[in-house]
Amino acid sequence: MNIKADNIFSVKTANEFNALALNIFKLQAQNCNVYREYIFHLGVDADEVTEVRQIPFLPISFFKSHSVLSSTNPVEITFSSSGTTGMVQSCHHVTDVKLYKQSYLQAFTAFYGDVNEYCFLALLPSYQQRSGSSLIYMVNDLIEKSGHPQSGYFLYNHDELLQTLLELKSKKQKTVLIGVTYALLDFIEQFDINFPELIVMETGGMKGKRKEMVREELHEQLTNGFGVKAIHSEYGMTELLSQAYSLGDGIFNCPSWMQVLIRDTNDPLSLIENGRTGGINVIDLANINSCSFIATQDLGRINPDQSFEVLGRFDNADIRGCNLLVQ
């Protein structure tokens, strides 16, 4: 069974997604050692799994203790998680980084349009100051592919960022400002800017720099500070090669090759119906060379239109780099 990138990123219907997810499950149940052992200890026979809802999800913590690989090809890059000093980092060994590139480029295009129409500004000090960040890899590539002379990073030079934003506003240039949450707050405490067309995309939380805030309060401060109608967010993590996006109000949607399901917090092998709060499980078909079926430590719920919300984290879960705000 040979599954190519074109098979993954051309998925359009639920039937296509389900069929491909089952095929990838069969492959990974055979070829991913840690996943195969996990399924065995659960007493699951992979041959008897005939529906997506029967697929077991690998706890995300296995990326800390094992090499989660379904491919024998050489590892091209290893992405590692953020965390406080002394924490064991999650590592995602990627044997085909082109899958990651195609995933984020195609997803951005689906949600926002052509990359080369935008100027990308990045305010990501916590990410820039460590190695192994998949977010920095993506932003580097978006900056390069935008081809805009003013695309780039702003570490702590907020004065320069303000001047750049004002110039881009005057030129009516489509602009994305992607920033770690605490750095965006630091900026608006110094400056007010009224740039209604700006896309402000927050990611990464407070990183221990500030007290965590509920999403509504945070987004109200940011919308007022930047003069925008809504704050965008991306939901991604080291262990995934795909991201979901929120265009406002903390409502996330997945690209067609990614799906979120919700598990029962008291029975982690059981899924629950839409509208109820539980643990977020993610199917990421782009993870074909690692594991596509991940049980995260995030809490959320699915809405009737299949969008989803992130409502916090399980108790004692590590502070991580993905966008999580307790509500």
Main sheet attributes: strand count, strand direction, barrel closure = 7 strands, mixed
How do the strands line up in the largest sheet?
5-4-6-7-8-9-10
Low-confidence stretches: 317-327
Elements, N to C (H/E):
HHHEHEEHEHHEHEHEHEEEEEEE
Helix content: 25-40%
Basic shape: globular
Task: Give average pLDDT, whole number.
Answer: 91
Total of helices: 10
Instruction: Give me the Rg, rounded.
Output: 20 Å
Q: Distance between termini?
A: 44 Å
Structural class by helix and strand composition:
alpha/beta
DSSP strand (E) fraction?
A: 15-25%
Give the oligomeric state of the chains in this entry, treating copies of one chain as homo and distinct chains as hetero. single chain
Number of strands: 14
Task: Describe the protein's architecture and organization.
By secondary structure, the chain is α/β, with parallel strands linked by helices. The chain has ten helices and 14 strands. It has a seven-stranded mixed β-sheet, sandwiched between helices. It is globular, with a radius of gyration of 20 Å. The protein starts with a helix and ends in a 14-residue tail after the last strand. About 45% of the residues are buried. The C terminus is likely disordered.
